[in-house]
Amino acid sequence: MFDLKAYLPILLMFIVAAGFAVSQVLISQLIGPKRRTPTKLMPYECGKDPVGSARERFSVKFYLVAMIFVLFDIELIFLVPWAVVFKRLAGPEFGLGTLMYVEMMLFIALLFVGFVYIWKKGILDWSQAARQEAEAEAEMLAGQSGERLRRAA
Amino acid sequence: MDLSNPYIQAALQFLAIFITFNVVLMIVAYTVLAERRILGFIQGRLGPNRVGPGGVLQPFADLLKFIFKEEIVPDKSTRFVYFLAPLIAVTAAMMTLIVYPFGPRVTLPYFGQVELVIARFDIALLYVLAVTSIGVYGIALAGWASNSKYSLMGGLRSSAQMISYELSLGLSLVGVILMSGTLDLYEIVEQQSGWYGFKWNIFPQFIGFVVYLTSAIAETNRVPFDLPEAETELVAGFHTEYSALKFALFFMAEYINMFTVSVLATTLFLGGWNVPGLALLFSPGSIPFAVFSVIGFFVKVFFFLFLYIWLRGTLPRFRFDQLMSFGWKFLLPVALLNVVLTATLVWLGVL
């Protein structure tokens, strides 16, 4: 019973929303004043000339969070269809309640074990790891500058 | 006019979408004004009150200012992505407008029985979750494309925060889905009618409601979770380099997301358009019944919007490590526990 017509408003809404957004960008391109100076076009850094590019390396933590998110989001996606049919299939008409309940609880338990593992591994600790990282970096920089000073002398 | 003609139906839907779109834009504009006024009162000052009586024309003055501002594209930015990011953010935010069930069935002259919702399909809740999570791209790309250190930090923080809290947000909704057995928002609201408001999902799903509200505030990057635009450390976060109407688009996206979150909270937990005891005064399906139901719906939504502003005037900001450990180590296990608890109760036939 798949009726594509019910999804037509999504397309219409997309046309309205995207049309609105594009028109806003065009309007400010056309109407706003254009007095450009090199200083104005610099990336903002509190009035200082920016040093280097902003696109440098950043903490690996952000990648880790993204990876864990994908794992748990898949868990969530598994849970949703199960949750939709659970009440109906657990009812007297089908009587699959115990089977479905035990299966999903096993699945959640397995994932929870994984969750405890990453917790104990310290992947979710930002403060401690960040401090260690910063300390290591400061040590490294101190070593470098010490070397440079020695070479200069 | 033949109402069963598909073209006429599409035209009517387009009209309805256009009207909703404008109504929501007005609500957003006046939420901003209300926020500035209420924050003013909380902080013992007046807030904007000069444009028009009591400041009611302030949003239009702001709009004019946005239009006539110079648009600056930083020379080191990646131009295409820089322009694309606000478009993604605002389009993703607006795409959810069509599934809000804002009123009950009503019998209108000429049209017959009408459900007060623009689009009704089975997977509405999943659709809302899917579309709103596209908004992360807008923010992450904006932070990266600006090529400014503040923007990049804001974008990174924002993506990490939004994906972390999306888990507990999604899990808190599973409890409601378990109880109602459907993803159709309209049907979820209808199941909560009756019993003078004691059928609202907030009573059996109180843990889910609290988890939902907390993670929704984080998801919309609002105080106390506004790390992506923490002005004391990151200037303005991911939209530091944006000016004129492109900045306005990000601003609008944030407020539309707030509105969406409030509508979802109302729909899923507070009974949507159900007003306790209204069926005693008017017969369901009549026009006054529908009018008061829609008013009840908006009262609930505005309560949540007020809550956002209230929180902003009250709470200080989290630190980033506190934010991440709160999301992962507290909200996520609690949300999982709520799912297990609800499933157990449904299995035992209590709920």
From TrEMBL, chain A:
Subcellular location: Cell membrane; Membrane
Membrane-spanning segments: 6-27, 62-86, 98-119
First-tier enzyme category under EC: translocase
Pfam families: Oxidored_q4 (PF00507)
Membrane topology value: Multi-pass membrane protein
Family: Belongs to the complex I subunit 3 family.
Subunit structure: NDH-1 is composed of 14 different subunits. Subunits NuoA, H, J, K, L, M, N constitute the membrane sector of the complex.
Protein name as annotated: NADH-quinone oxidoreductase subunit A
Gene (UniProt): nuoA
Automatic annotation (TrEMBL), chain B:
Biological process according to GO: aerobic respiration
Keyword Transport: no
PROSITE patterns: COMPLEX1_ND1_2
A GO CC term attached to the entry: plasma membrane
Pfam families (alphabetical): NADHdh
Coiled-coil regions, chain positions: none
Function statement: NDH-1 shuttles electrons from NADH, via FMN and iron-sulfur (Fe-S) centers, to quinones in the respiratory chain. The immediate electron acceptor for the enzyme in this species is believed to be ubiquinone. Couples the redox reaction to proton translocation (for every two electrons transferred, four hydrogen ions are translocated across the cytoplasmic membrane), and thus conserves the redox energy in a proton gradient. This subunit may bind ubiquinone.
Official protein name in the record: NADH-quinone oxidoreductase subunit H
